[in-house]
Amino acid sequence: MTDMQKSWGLHLGIIALLFVLQFILPAYHHGSLARIMVLTCYAMGYNILFGYTGLLSLGHALFFAAGMYGMSLSIQHLDWSAGPAVFAGLVAGFAMALVIGMLLLRTAGVAFMIVTLMFAQAGYLTVLYFGEWTRGDEGFVIKQELRRIAGFDLSDPTNRYFAALLLMAVCIVITLRVVQTGFGRVLVAIRENEERTRMLGYDIQRHKLAAILLSGTMSAAAGAAYGLLFGYAGATFASVQYSIFPLLWVLLGGAGTVLGPFIGTLFLFIATSNLLTILPWYEPPTGSLSTTAALAICVLIAVPLFSITKRGLLAYLRSYAEPTFMMLPFNIIGELSRTLALAVRLYGNIMSGSIIVGILISIAPFFFPIIMQLLGLLTGLVQAYIFAVLAMVYIASASKTHRREPKEAEAGGSS
Helices H, strands E: what count in the chain? Predict the structure, then answer.
């Protein structure tokens, strides 16, 4: 099996895993994971420009909002159906990326970053200025009966989940295809050394413009999907924080990797859910054992998936009988107990922290609230970080190929 086939098998396996989760997760959490998948597509679009091409943008909310408002305004004011409206959002994002990209190519480095932020703020102010149609910060709700494509009601949790999964699958396939072609390799070369790439005869400006167009269109698709699936469009999605979010997701998950945006978005979701424990009336999703168990099951399935992709099926199965066949039942128990520990650790620490804070606040409401709420914030971030790191460590250890070093091989041959 070639490296390319292994890569396709791995990413298609992740898509299949997300498909199966629809039938495992409680109905309450379908919406959260659907939201994560749509925002992952936004981060994937950003990753094309930042992770692979090396162009730092602080204005990607402009493309996200262009797709969202291109779709939602077509439904709201032109009475278009959802299908053509989504296409209008894609066209709006592509056109915006083309116009802005032509101007951005006249800048480089810090100037590129500043100009992207400037255009994004101009877009945000434009949304506020035309509040008669956009309703500004208040935004507007897309009616449930209008959120249908080909007879499928996208307000239904199951249909919404599968629509988000389909969009994410398309973005993964596009990203994989791009990075495995000559075009993608030129983008990476531009990121590593732009001048040397130019000396090799490649048209730097044309490749940068193509990267901006692809990145902007993918971000617009995510914006259009977000507005349609969740039935809302507002100026908040054009503000500066929605330009910072994809940067955080990509950095947390790994810039220049296909699945990095998904890992980063999922991590930030867990961290944010944990941070919301400061609200006394809010129960975080990670405070439910069903949620943490589903996340741990994802890790349980991802570990052998990554391992088989990297090492092969036989090598993976053989690892359970190492160092001797007598260790087979213990290795299997260890695999299952590791998954259980991931779920219980995240659930137990979050819930116990909430209970302790509640007890202390009830005992001494005038002395402990601020300190304990800050402690709860710290605990939430630490537990999210521990879960993400342990998951990646388990996957990395399972993917490691056990090969002897050259010197050891020579020594073994000579003896």
Answer: 17, 4
pLDDT in the model for residue 373: 59
Residue 304 preceded by cis peptide, ω within 30 = no
131: tokens are 């509040």
Q: Cβ of 180: how many Cβ atoms within 10 Å?
A: 15
* CB-based contact 69:95 (threshold 8 Å): no
Which amino acid is residue 377, in one-letter code?
L
The values of phi and psi at residue 130, to 5°, are -95, 45
What pLDDT is recorded for position 188? 94
Tell me the pLDDT tens digit for each residue of 361-384.
Answer: 555 555 555 555 566 666 666 666
Indicate the DSSP class of residue 140: E
Q: What is the pLDDT of residue 358?
A: 58
Question: At 117, is the secondary structure helix, strand, or coil?
Answer: helix
Q: For residues 390 and 294, is the Cβ–Cβ distance under 8 A? A: no
Q: Are 40 and 165 in contact (CB under 8 A)?
A: no
Distance (Å, whole) CA 186 – CA 180: 11
Token digits for 398? 């399972």
Closest C-alpha among 339, 341, 258, 254 to residue 299:
339
The 10 Å CB-count burial string (b at 16+, else e) for 238-261 is bbeebbebbbebbebbbbbbbbbb
Q: Within a 13 Å sphere around the CA of 315, how many CA atoms are in the beta-carbon half?
A: 14
Cis before 323? omega within 30: yes
- Asked if residue 40 lies in contact with residue 261, where contact means CB atoms within 8 angstroms, the answer is yes
CA distance 109 to 396: 34
Whole-angstrom distance, CA of residue 8 vs CA of residue 160 = 25
Please list, in sequence order, all residues whose beta carbon lies within 8 angstroms of the beta carbon of residue 195, skipping any fewer than 6 positions away: none
DSSP-assigned letter for residue 188: H
Q: pLDDT tens, 116-141?
A: 999 999 999 999 999 889 988 888 99
Which regions of the chain are under pLDDT 70? 1, 274-303, 305-312, 316, 335-336, 338-415
Tokens of 223: 């914006």
Contacts of 244 (CB under 8 A, 6+ apart): 58
